[in-house]
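Next comes one such specimen:
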Amino acid sequence: MEIEDLRTFVEVADAGGVTSAAQRLGISKSMVSRRIARLETDLGAQLLARTTRGIALTEAGATFRDYAARISAEMDAARETILPAGELCGRLRVAAPLSFGPTHFAPVLSQMARQHPQLHIYSCYTDRFVDLVTEGFDCAIRVGYLQDSNLVARRVGPLYGKFVASPEYIAANGSPETPDELVDHQALMQGTEAWQVTDGDRVLTVRPQGRFKADNGVALLAAALAGIGVARLPDGLTDEHIASGALVQVMSRHPPPPAGIFVVRPPGQHPSRKVRVLTEMLIQCFDGGA
């Protein structure tokens, strides 16, 4: 019985299909099917059954899934134990935001891959909140104000931002200076979210309105540069454009409160060593080693 066959079966069981499992594992669908067939032959039992909705676990498959997952995890732990001190192996699947990930987090993941040549890293960059358990991710890097969930979160650094608009927008519509004035302007938003603003030691919540919405910070930046409205964006996206004069900070007496950069993972007793190492590398990069 091959350990890769066990891992593949667990992925198919968790992903609910061969196609999704193949994408997670980075292999072909035919390879997934061959591994499952080989495992079923070794066990002498059918583990998966095809349905109109895809793949379903048989009774034997449902029983065997937890055993297979536990064996795979223990094998990974055993391999790491006999590796040279500090070396990582296996696979790490990370979700990161598209707006910030390729420029700020990809270099850290690349450094991690260079330092651990036996580690396979798969990173997915998207601004939607992926379901870590359903989609098979070990962890995610998220930025902003963390929503309540059952995920385990570790803050790895601060994230500062500003309200910005183009000089053209300000010339045509004026510059909002107070929270009350902000709600009268065109806001560039990801959806219908509320915005937080600081008022001295207090944090106020405002509900802006706007006709331009996007699920990506880079797209909102483009809209701000085009003079469509006021955007709330992290400094990493706006510093260059403020320096060039293409954008102007507004609401300078009422900036958004500092947000954060977080590593989140599914609930469990202990994070995997791979996730712990990534977390520490991000802390060193974004929190000055604190």
